[in-house]
Amino acid sequence: MTPLSILLVLSSALIHSSWNFFTKRGNWPVKFFLWVFLWGTLLYLPFFIGFGIFPAFLLNFPSKLWLLAILSSLIQTIYVISLIEAYRVGDLSLVYPISRSAPLFTQIWAILFLGEDLSIRGMLGIGLVVLGIFVISLKAFPMKKLNSHSQPIASASYLLASIAAITGSIYSVIDKVAVQITHPVFYIWLTDFLIFLYIGLYLLFRKGDSCWKIWNESRKEIFMIVLLQNASYLLILMAMQMSKVSYVVAFRQVSALFGTGLGILFLKESQWKTRISGALILTLGLILIGLAK
Question: Most buried of the four, 89, 148, 176, 212, by CB within 10 Å?
């Protein structure tokens, strides 16, 4: 990875852990993110219109890009819903590290479908990243709780976080292909719009508070997450244009370090010794990935 791509990924990781922290603390429902992706779509339109490229640039999108965006957005929608529901039933210290364990899956997809040739140092680094994330989450899912009344909740949060990890690895590989075809800004706009549509369809079959109630109560938070989520995504797509997707996704897991720190400092979560140990293993893996060719 180049120094610039590492800087982009580190910045993205910090922003990503921040919006996940706020999501957990706010305990927002899926309807909150319907507004996030709607405003994410509207965010770019003034710039597109100002430069006179909207809606003309839509006609220039190749059919392959549309296919990639439709597929990636569908998988991202599953990722977002799984992550939100996991935060609503589980702790940040459990859900976030597990949901960031995508590098192992990404490595498999990249080798199978992109033909990436990873160095021994890079593969060792990815393995250490996954191991570090596992250690961080150990105390959040203790074996003694498996026979208690908390088992269904713990199992649900673990399963949802795992789904987020797998789907995150899949759409990352798709995004790597897509940003070789078009500029990341155009791609983000297109995926934001499609995710908004997908979440809207999902919510048609769900009950709960009205979307307008969520808007009236949380509009400031919605705009904050819009900016954080789009900034994080843009930076990671730019990094993918420069480096192998396996390394980018693995190095991005430094967000687990930030997430662990946020949980310990601001949510007063316990078991900090175990999580710090896992963070140190993860950091070693990141160093190896950064030095990989």
Answer: 176
